[in-house]
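can u do me a favor
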């Protein structure tokens, strides 16, 4: 289950009032990228791709929070609405290695919950993979090549070795989708030729936001 496109856009509007920030435009662009790519893949539903893309970061509606917290909040929020398919993507989009990211026993209840949910999902499905990739293709100011987005995020949060390993996963996802699409993912991202060349100052979150 997932909401209509109109409902998802309305959720973003409400969330923006609670916690304004570039994450809202980023979410809209993730939705557009996911829709345009899914449209080229016969086994995928473009409306579902659009909606789960729009809502992947909806956990940020609660305020400026770290990665596990926004994942957990988004998951719970979507579940209370009955949108289990959107909830799943709220959970999986930040964990390219799924449960394998947790080689340790998490010390917060939220992370324990996330670990258990990821174990139950086992492997990433096509929608998980699509949004993991689109998260890296979409900024608030438009679409960019993966390399650019990775630098963007690194400028914001610093270098983390595990994150760099995640880049390889994303490049693989891109290749796999492109084989089915018969073209580059960049071919279906509007205006990417212009926006990927822009270099706005990275958004610096207020002090209390941490990546982990
Ligand atoms: Fe995102």
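np, heres the sequence
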């Amino acid at each position: 289950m997932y909401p209509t496109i109109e409902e998802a856009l309305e959720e973003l509007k409400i969330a923006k009032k609670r916690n304004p920030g570039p994450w809202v435009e980023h979410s809209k662009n993730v939705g557009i990228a996911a829709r345009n790519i899914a449209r080229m893949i016969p086994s995928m539903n473009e409306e579902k791709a659009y909606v789960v893309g729009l809502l992947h970061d909806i956990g940020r509606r609660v305020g400026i929070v770290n990665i596990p917290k926004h994942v957990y909040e988004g998951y719970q929020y979507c579940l209370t609405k009955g949108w289990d398919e959107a909830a799943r993507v709220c959970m999986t989009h930040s964990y390219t290695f799924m449960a394998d990211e947790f080689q340790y026993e998490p010390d917060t209840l939220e992370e324990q919950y996330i670990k258990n949910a990821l174990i139950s999902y086992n492997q990433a499905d096509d929608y998980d993979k699509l949004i993991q990739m689109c998260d890296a293709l979409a900024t608030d100011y438009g679409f960019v090549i993966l390399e650019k987005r990775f630098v963007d995020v690194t400028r914001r949060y610093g270098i983390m070795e595990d994150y760099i390993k995640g880049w390889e996963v994303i490049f693989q996802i891109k290749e796999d989708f492109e084989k089915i699409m018969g073209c580059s993912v960049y071919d279906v991202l509007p205006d990417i030729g212009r926006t990927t060349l822009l270099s706005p100052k990275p958004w610096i979150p207020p002090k209390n936001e941490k990546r982990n």
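Strands lie at 138-139, 142-143. hope that helps!!
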